[in-house]
């Protein structure tokens, strides 16, 4: 028998959808539209009711002017028995502690209903919701923002939302009221606590929820930490993976693979001469996204690199030694501690951020957050609902939509102000220059500005880049673009920059690889690289430090593999060697693979020294990839995105073996760069400072067959430096520039074995080694072997 009511305008919410009923009884909550705080709890025996499939609302037929009390017990609610509820505020977005409670606000323009879901830690493990609070669109919605304010006990409490509306993929809508979705502004995402561990019942995608912040949260003690604010021209960047840096057993850290593990090994970076780390993605992602058995290696594939973000405000909780303890607050503080300790050692921290796509993939992907909140706002969708895929990962973040670009700016500000991050490297940044879905002058600027533009069209002045570049907080941090995307847009040298953006210089990588391995036709291009790529940056008003120079990065061959393999060897990835880049500009020095003759192995070491030397003497900002300083190998695999094993782990035992060899060379070259005033210039070198030479002074050879480049550089600290590269397969005796009253003294010769490759003051028998060159230097000559590079210093001639 139905419940009969005549109680004004009420909405009856069937809370059985929260999976929390202790008995077969049904519990209904009645919310008055005129008095949000008034609730009546009705406990029912089974009824003949109508349930809306889409809205999870139980409606009852109203008959007469009363309620048949013989079939229902009506209880006056104890308002505030757990939470006191009020209207709330539409700003700021997210869950924000204020006035002794928490304000919840989330943007969803196209949803017709919204429910705040509060979830305890224990209920999360059982995929249950602790309390559901439907939001009244007349009271709890301002514009497109749903909001509510709660007071109560939020200890060990998490939250999410349920939204309802159209489930119409062809129109770009994926609303599903059965799903609890993450708030894009959640400050910590909680699900599993241990990296690689499966969820309940072996679930790779267990329910996730956001941490509810409250005013009792202990504020992190920064101990007066302030931004280091190094001039970008002085940086030496180190691309690092947090887990990979210390997970190998040889790291012997107390908390391997975590933020604390990184802290234990920061002194290694200091020893190497690094003053800036670029962290591969540390936003929350699901490493089990690709979870499957790998028959080649006998382990399981995971998303190790992390370029598949779930939430941009939350640090990767499973990189914390604390896991989900204290609802992620301890994990947040652990990452802050890592950054604070890096700053204490004079090391800046840059985050690699992925605002080009998310983990929700294409139309077959999961509904986790953005898709369930308002898919057509957050993603580039075509008129018939298809996902644009400029990222190559199934979807494309709608970066230049007004709401989305404000979200990105809010996120970046949060990391700068709350985590003291020193800058950002933007993955596939060219996507952020593309026009948004439904792009036109009205929805972006408020006024029509000419013809409509196709979604994804590259923009000369992208609104997002404009906002970031002129933001009062973000303009003061390092901004680095990976200036290309998977849709064919390549903007190295042309990325919209506002005078402050730098770029990963992919052309530097390709040119240096070609020249060092002895390819004809690259002498002139290599010289441009040594000068900071003025051909790319000078015309646009930028400087050498706008070029982030690198030879190797996470994506592609390591430095050791670059000189060991002609071809990629990606079978362990389980894709029949079809994944990864085919054009690597590598050279195995005569034999494929690690097992090679003594002569080949010696040549490989020489080439590694040549690459590192070229990186350190080039104008611009050098970037070293983690492990290259000791010669880490991935066995020729140039796409190790899916391996949580030795392929991606820094092997500390190998580093110790290399300490007297390649690591020493890298350390001394980095130190030399930092000592020289002329190797990190604020502007491009001119003829007053730099002179080009060939095999004879002042006669450079820029012909197609030239494999020799040499130059002198006036340096206010070192006096004058002579640097030469002989990438021919033939040795050569070169004539040095004459400097009356001075003589050239050898410092570096990559053809020599350690420790004579770098003649530092502590080298045993250093004077004897220098004397061995005397007969050549007395004649102003120097003998260079094939595939070698040298650095000579000008010193007073004591015999003159």
From TrEMBL:
UniProt-annotated location(s): Plastid, Chloroplast
EC number(s) from the headed UniProt entry: 3.2.1.68
Pfam families: Alpha-amylase, CBM_48, ISOA1-3_C
Signal peptide interval: 1-18
One Gene Ontology MF term: isoamylase activity
Reactions performed catalytically: Hydrolysis of (1->6)-alpha-D-glucosidic branch linkages in glycogen, amylopectin and their beta-limit dextrins
Top-level EC class as recorded in UniProt: hydrolase
Domain Glycosyl hydrolase family 13 catalytic span(s) in chain numbering: 239-673
GO cellular component terms given for this protein: chloroplast
Keyword DNA-binding: no
InterPro entries: GH, GH13_cat_dom, GlgX_Isoamylase_N_E_set, Glyco_hydro_13_N, Glyco_hydro_b, Ig-like_fold, Ig_E-set, ISOA1-3-like_C
One GO biological process term: carbohydrate metabolic process
Similarity section: Belongs to the glycosyl hydrolase 13 family.
The protein's name in its UniProt record: isoamylase
